[in-house]
Design brief:
Keywords: Membrane, Transmembrane, Transmembrane helix. This protein is of the alpha+beta class and 290 residues long. It has five helices and 14 strands. A four-stranded antiparallel sheet has the order 1-3-6-5, with no helix packed on it. A three-stranded mixed sheet has the order 2-10-7, with no helix packed on it. A three-stranded antiparallel sheet has the order 4-8-9, with no helix packed on it. Helix 1 packs parallel to helix 3 and helix 2 packs antiparallel against helix 3.
Length: 290
């Protein structure tokens, strides 16, 4: 009988705890359960034991009731991402703040999107990223409470750095190409200028040489013309002297007569005679004078 009474108290204890866990107000009928077993005659011989067990059930049910009634209903949640730009390789914990602060979040989901995914475990919202992009997302707690919306941007820093380096390399190559082309163009222009200068100098030298040659030829022709005119004049003078019996000059041992005492041929002789051609006894004139 004692064994059955003890077992009954134990079973009753767990039943009361279960009922209070499922429905907190079950604490009220638990009081009646305690009073009933305290006054039941079958267990009067074990009143002290029953009293102790009843006190345990009372205190346990009271604590469960207090815990159950103090669990507030969730009315709002705020999501704090900490920043708005993330790298695709990052994994971040988003701070979720419930209202009231002691409300429980049994389930947390992330709105549909293409770039982020949520793992909610042990009260922590862990978000990882799938690809780059920009989107606006919200959290939903317990299938009914939505958080504030947040616009996040996901970037691929490695890809951006690689693209930046590729762009810089492309710009460097383009700059080197432009510099090389400019140097080649400058060299070509310089070569063209030097060639033009050389051609101009050659043309100038050729023109000057032709002008000098022409001037020399003209001078020589003029000298020849003057000499011919002078010879012709001397011949005419000699003929005139011959016809008029003019004065001629000669030396004793000479074979020709001269028209002037200044003839170079006469300079070698100290004795010079003058008279007519007939008086000179010479048959031909000097080639230098006539």
């Amino acid at each position: 009988m004692k064994k059955n009474g003890c077992l009954t108290w134990i079973i009753g204890f767990f039943v009361v705890c279960l009922l209070i866990g499922l429905y907190s107000l079950a604490w009220i009928p638990a009081i009646g359960f305690i009073i009933y077993y305290l006054i039941k005659k079958d267990y009067s011989g074990t009143r002290k034991r029953n009293f102790i067990i009843s006190i345990i059930i009372f205190i346990t049910s009271l604590l469960l009731f207090i815990w159950g009634t103090n669990s507030s209903s969730l009315t709002d949640i705020q999501a704090d991402w900490g920043k708005t730009t993330f790298d695709v390789s990052e994994t971040v914990e988003v701070k979720i703040t419930p209202t009231p602060s002691d409300a429980k979040i049994e389930k947390l989901t992330l709105s549909d999107n293409d770039i982020a995914k949520l793992k909610y475990k042990d009260g922590k919202a862990i978000v990882s990223f799938k690809k780059v992009g920009t989107t606006t997302v919200t959290f939903t707690a317990n299938d009914s409470i939505d958080s504030n919306a947040a616009t996040i941007t996901v970037k691929d820093k490695k890809a951006e750095e690689a693209a930046k380096k590729a762009k810089e390399e492309q710009e460097r190559l383009a700059e080197e190409k432009a510099k090389k082309e400019a140097e080649e163009k400058a060299a070509q222009e310089k070569a063209a200028q030097e060639k033009a200068a050389q051609e101009a100098a050659a043309a100038k030298a050729k023109a000057e040489a032709e002008a000098a040659a022409q001037a020399q030829a003209q001078a020589e022709a003029q000298q020849q013309a003057q000499a011919a005119a002078q010879a012709q004049a001397q011949q005419q003078q000699a003929r005139a002297q011959q016809q008029a019996g003019g004065t001629v000059y000669w030396v004793p041992n000479g074979q020709v007569y001269h028209s002037t005492p200044d003839c170079p041929s006469l300079g070698r002789s100290s004795t010079i005679y003058s008279g007519t051609i007939a008086q000179s006894g010479k048959s031909r004139p000097c080639k230098n004078c006539y």
